[in-house]
Amino acid sequence: MMDKDRIEKAVREILIGIGEDPDREGLIETPKRVAEMYEEIFAGLHKNPLDDVKKFHEEHDNGMIIVKDIPVYSMCEHHLLPFIGVAHVVYIPGGNEVLGLSKLARIVDTVAKKPQLQERLCNEIADVILEAVNSKGIAVVIEAEHLCMTMRGIRKPGSKTVTSALRGLMKTDSQIRMEAISLINGRGL
């Protein structure tokens, strides 16, 4: 579990380290607020994303299921600054099990709530879905803006990083992969 007292002490030290007075009116509660925020935004460290998975037995024609534009908020593990964007999840069920649509978004949310790299985030989401349901193919695409590139360093606001993770038929069958990409891009079949 989170050690919020330790986080509060560390934030207080950071404030002193940058030359601020942690006892001034506007900062007195900041260490506590940051500790509470960290408990929320890093909750994925202490949660198994499979715990929220709900499967339904459903006759399915092996067509694609897609949930697009799932908001993603995560923290870059290199600078502890946010990256913000959207995830697109496409999968082809294998058999008669499908995931609840909201559960796809919940998987994305849980896996994102820890210090993360976008590339790893894509792969972890795909692997959780693969473990959760027998799938013939999975594609996860994430488009995100990294504040470590926007507000510091290179300072290129608006630049997007796009990553993908492909499993099964999405990786081996170029026609299926192109159909998934077309659906993600809103071009239909």
TrEMBL record:
Designated name of the protein: GTP cyclohydrolase 1
Catalytic activity: GTP + H2O = 7,8-dihydroneopterin 3'-triphosphate + formate + H(+)
Enzyme Commission code: 3.5.4.16
Family designation: Belongs to the GTP cyclohydrolase I family.
GO BP field: one-carbon metabolic process; tetrahydrobiopterin biosynthetic process; tetrahydrofolate biosynthetic process
The species this protein was found in: Clostridium pasteurianum BC1
One term under GO cellular component: cytoplasm
EC class: hydrolase
One protein family per Pfam: GTP_cyclohydroI
Upper classification of the organism: Bacteria, Bacillati, Bacillota, Clostridia, Eubacteriales
InterPro entries in alphabetical order: GTP-CH-I_C/QueF, GTP-CH-I_N, GTP_CycHdrlase_I, GTP_CycHdrlase_I_CS, GTP_CycHdrlase_I_dom
Tagged with keyword Transcription regulation: no
Binding site for Zn(2+): C76, H79, C148
Keyword vocabulary terms for this entry: GTP-binding, Hydrolase, Metal-binding, Nucleotide-binding, One-carbon metabolism, Zinc
